[in-house]
Task: inverse folding
């Protein structure tokens, strides 16, 4: 498998590029509009053809490049089936994984940050990776106070779907504000200050309640755009908008 972790600094977003070496097909997970040219260059450099874009959830901090990538490359746009987006070509769920070449993206329903959030488990020989979106971050987690967020649901999602994975499973989040790249399930179980070290549900709910995070700065642009797979806003307006920064995590 070809694999690249790509970073967008304004929203501190990680986009992940996966390529099947046998078929030359590729997937971009959580692509960002501002890095469209970079992602196209990465595909070209690796000799890959983009088959799908894939999202963990409808983002509030950046606009996806899914529709523009579809227009340019002919790829298909995949979203969690629960989002019910007419603009999506494919809906994924725990019973409907996404297979591209010899790669399989196994969705894990992990609501709490949003009510339809999914993480993705990819198991290739020698290494298992889980891409946790905004649900589980390195030493943190996504906020739970908008988009159908629910602290109790997030606690259950992480403990039942992610913390039950083997400890050596690599954890790749959708954001990191300190330029960290990867963690492990064992590390997050042991030391995550919000969820690890045996934190109870009541403790977690109190932690999330006390965050008092500001209103996301780009939500009024990003949410309407992302409900149309990134195809509705004026691009210049997006580029001028102030980035959200660390308020997803708090």
Result:
């Amino acid at each position: 498998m070809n694999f690249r972790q790509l970073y967008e600094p304004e929203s501190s977003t990680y986009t992940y590029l996966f390529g099947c070496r046998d078929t030359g097909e590729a997937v971009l997970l959580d692509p960002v509009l501002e890095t469209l040219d970079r992602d196209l260059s990465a595909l070209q450099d690796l000799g890959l053809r983009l088959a799908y874009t894939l999202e963990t959830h409808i983002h509030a901090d950046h606009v996806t490049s899914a529709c523009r990538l579809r227009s340019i490359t002919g790829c298909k746009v995949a979203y969690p089936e629960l989002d019910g987006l007419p603009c999506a070509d494919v809906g994924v769920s725990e019973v409907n994984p996404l297979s591209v070449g010899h790669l399989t993206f196994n969705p894990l329903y992990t609501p709490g940050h949003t009510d339809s959030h999914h993480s993705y488990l990819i198991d290739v020989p020698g290494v298992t990776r889980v891409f946790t979106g905004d649900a589980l971050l390195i030493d943190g987690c996504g906020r739970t106070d908008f988009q159908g967020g629910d602290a109790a649901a997030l606690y259950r999602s992480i403990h039942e779907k992610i913390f039950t994975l083997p400890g050596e499973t690599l954890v790749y989040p959708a954001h990191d504000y300190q330029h960290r790249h990867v963690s492990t399930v064992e590390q997050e179980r042991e030391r995550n200050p919000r969820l690890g070290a045996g934190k109870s549900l009541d403790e977690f709910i109190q932690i999330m309640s006390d965050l008092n995070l500001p209103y996301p700065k780009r939500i009024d642009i990003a949410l309407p755009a992302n409900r149309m797979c990134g195809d509705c806003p004026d691009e210049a307006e997006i580029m001028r908008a102030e980035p959200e920064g660390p308020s997803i995590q708090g």
Summary: The radius of gyration is 17 Å. DSSP finds seven helices and 14 strands in the chain.
